[in-house]
Write a structure and sequence with these properties.
Layout (H helix, E strand, L loop, with lengths): L9 H19 L7 H22 L3 E3 L4 E3 L1 H20 L1 H4 L8 H19 L4 H19 L6 H32 L4 H7 L4 H18 L8 H7 L2 H25 L5 H24 L4 H18 L6 H31 L12 H4 L1 H15 L5 H14 L4 H29 L14 H16 L4 H11 L1
Antiparallel strand pairs: 1-2
Helix pairs in contact: 1-2, 1-5, 2-3, 3-5, 3-11, 3-14, 3-19, 5-6, 5-11, 6-7, 6-11, 7-9, 7-10, 9-11, 10-13, 11-13, 11-14, 12-13, 12-18, 13-14, 14-16, 14-17, 14-19, 14-20, 16-18, 16-19
């Protein structure tokens, strides 16, 4: 084996170095309670910031006879997910200082980096075995993150539901891949695309494979774990699960459908049409009924997953661009909401009930304003970035040109109005609803302010700075 090929995997190698570095720092400073948290935080954020730059500068590469294939589009997505992970690490600091998880920040950072490494491997896989290993590398540490608050029953319950459903979906996916291998005799993406035929075995294989990744993206009807897991997980982990994990799985599914299952496009497009309509519609209807904010954001994320996958319908380079751009905007908007939820939970009474936000503007006007901007972006209200991301997704889907594509876009447009209604319910609570016991006035910590500043800047600028979209489009073509 030529070990020099690892140099073609520099983003992954850098993450491995970061993982080892965090472990060493945690071991060295384990008895120095005053300096250990700051040392771990500095090392983790430093490596993640360097990783963002590394992904921007990385060139397309291939290693191990095509099992690893890194493209320019994959490098852009790695940058987006790494930047989202950096925001998660920054906003998690108030939670990591709490009594239940004190002295566990080293474990938290190592688990986060491990999941990110697995997502990298998923997105750069050129072989189904490499893809599956990356999927498991991302899923198992994620279950540990969901159960990180070991003294909370809801956290353990959410982790149990997550890992059981993940195990079942992995089994279904492997069953489907066995059909693909039996038909083509290979697990290399290029070989499968060149020799796959359309018959009962490959159609079943495609359906089972789609079901497995549908779980990771929380698409209906594979979404039942989402609300309980989001509610039980610590708020920073919920934010990480809702944006970074979802973005990696959506990008991977898109690439495999377009490149590997291209000869079966008419079959997987019909599956997408059904799943997208169900995901957007059912999630929106259930979101209206929620009174717990993290469960509300869970159904919001299911609906957003439907919009993300709408870009894949176009089956073109514009699909890759639209999906990547949508994930970028979704990361900053959703992380802004979860940062506010985390600040309120850690400093304002430890609750995530929607009713606690009644009259929030009177006691905390700045946080209310930033929360409103993020919700407007998620709803697609101009001039925020969310409006542009939805517009490009609709354009990519409409390029298909068929009646079904136009119909699905029409349903998505109608659901945009429904989503605007339930996002405005939170805005109404903060600005209009009175409360006899509103949340007290409090100051956000420095880390939360930094995270909110990054996310708000993205919400305001990503839609009007055309260079961002042009950069993503250049990588996709």
């Amino acid at each position: 084996m030529n070990y020099g090929q690892f140099l073609n995997m520099m983003p992954e190698v850098t993450l491995m170095i970061a993982l080892v570095a965090v472990f060493i720092v945690d071991f060295i400073f384990h008895k120095k309670e005053s300096s250990r948290p700051q040392a771990l935080f500095t090392v983790t954020t430093g490596f993640l910031a360097y990783q963002c730059i590394s992904c921007i500068l990385a060139s397309p590469a291939e290693a191990f006879e095509g099992m690893y294939v890194s493209t320019a589009a994959a490098n852009v997505m790695k940058f987006i997910l790494t930047a989202g992970t950096l925001v998660v690490v920054i906003m998690a600091q108030p939670w990591l200082r709490q009594k239940d998880v004190a002295d566990k920040d080293g474990e938290f950072y190592m688990l986060v980096i491990s999941t990110l490494l697995g997502m990298y491997m998923m997105m750069s896989a050129g072989h189904f075995l490499m893809f599956f290993l990356g999927l498991e590398m991302a899923s198992i540490p994620m279950a540990c993150l969901v159960a990180f608050n070991k003294y909370r029953k809801e956290s353990a319950e959410g982790a149990a539901k997550f890992i059981l459903t993940a195990s079942f979906s992995s089994g279904v996916m492997l069953y489907g891949l066995s059909f693909i291998y039996a038909e083509t005799g290979s697990l290399y993406f290029g070989d499968v695309a060149g020799s796959i035929g359309v018959n009962a075995m490959t159609i079943l294989g495609l359906a089972f494979f789609f079901s497995g990744l549908g779980f990771k993206i929380s698409l209906v009807p594979f979404h039942f774990w989402t609300a309980d897991t989001y509610q039980g997980a610590p708020t920073p982990v919920t934010g990480y699960l809702s944006v970074v994990s979802k973005g990696a799985a959506a990008f991977t599914l898109m690439i495999i459908l377009i490149k590997v299952f291209a000869p079966m496009v008419e079959y997987w497009e019909y599956i997408l049409y059904i799943v997208i309509v169900l995901s957007i519609t059912i999630a929106n209807l259930f979101a209206i009924r929620q009174n717990e904010l993290k469960r509300f954001m869970a159904f919001s994320s299911i609906s957003q997953a439907g919009y993300i996958m709408l870009a894949v319908v176009g089956n073109s380079a514009m699909s890759v661009t639209a999906l990547t751009y949508y994930v970028l905007v979704y990361v900053v908007a959703n992380m802004s909401v979860f940062t506010v939820i985390n600040v309120v939970e850690t400093r304002g009474g430890g609750t995530t009930k929607m009713s606690c936000y009644d009259g929030f503007y009177k006691t905390n006007p700045k946080l209310s304003f930033l929360m409103t901007l993020a919700l407007f972006s998620l709803a697609g209200i101009p001039p925020f970035a969310g409006m542009f991301s939805k517009f490009f997704v609709f354009m990519a889907a409409a390029q298909e040109g068929s009646f079904l594509a136009y119909f699905v876009v029409f349903i998505a447009l109608i659901n945009t109005v429904i989503s605007l209604y339930y996002y405005l319910l939170i805005v109404k609570a903060m600005y209009i609803k009175p409360s006899d016991n509103p949340l007290p006035t409090f100051k956000s910590d420095v880390n939360s302010k930094v995270a909110l500043a990054i996310c708000t800047a993205g919400i305001a600028l990503f839609g009007v700075c055309s260079c961002i979209y042009d950069w993503i489009a250049a990588a996709a073509n």
